[in-house]
Design goal:
Number of helices: 4
Shape: globular
Low-confidence stretches: 1-5
Order of helices and strands: EHHEEEHEHEE
Number of strands: 7
Strand order of the largest sheet: 1-2-3-4-5-7-6
Largest sheet: 7 strands, mixed
Length: about 170
């Protein structure tokens, strides 16, 4: 059965996505405390981030696109949890969805694709830090088997105030 023309496509991120991914991320830098970055990026400044997510291995970048326009609707990543070697089987995961696409299931599609891609990797745990409050992100993570493990209180300062980050973990 052919897919509907409005069906969202999810695929690995590629270098041609850099400008759109940077613009999406910069929205969250400028407008929200969801990321603790405080200065926007140029695509060239974001290039090392993109290149650190190859199409195979434990550190992935999945993007959701609209099939008609190929507009990027969101992305999900798995990245190193910490730099020390004993953390190699742990990843930190995150999802960013374009502001105009909320509540359409884009985050769910992205995480489904990400965790399918990671299923053959030598990974033991995934972690996610969620700046508070963010009920939608907490619900998404819980749907994927993450469980709440604790909160870092007032760990980040942005927009002249301190923010808490709730931490979630998932066995892989």
């Amino acid at each position: 059965m052919p897919s509907e023309p409005t069906e969202v496509q999810v695929r690995p991120g590629v270098e041609d996505d850099l400008e759109a991914l940077t613009a999406l991320y910069n929205h969250y830098v400028r407008e929200t405390a969801i990321t603790f970055d405080t200065a926007i990026f140029t695509p060239e400044e974001r290039r090392p981030w993109l290149l650190s997510h190859p199409e195979d291995g434990p550190y992935r970048l999945m993007v959701a696109t609209a099939p008609d326009s190929q507009q990027i609707l969101g992305y999900a990543t798995s990245s190193p949890f910490r730099a020390k070697p004993a953390y190699a089987t742990s990843v930190e995961t995150t999802v960013y969805v374009a502001p105009h696409t909320g509540r359409r299931g884009i985050g769910t599609l992205l995480y489904k694709a990400l965790f399918e891609a990671l299923s053959g990797e030598d990974l033991h745990r995934a972690y996610a830090g969620i700046a508070q409050p963010n009920e939608a992100s907490a619900r998404l993570h819980e749907r994927f088997g993450f469980r709440y493990v604790g909160t870092y209180r007032e760990v980040g300062r942005k927009f002249g105030r301190y923010w808490d980050v709730a931490w979630y973990e998932k066995p892989l």
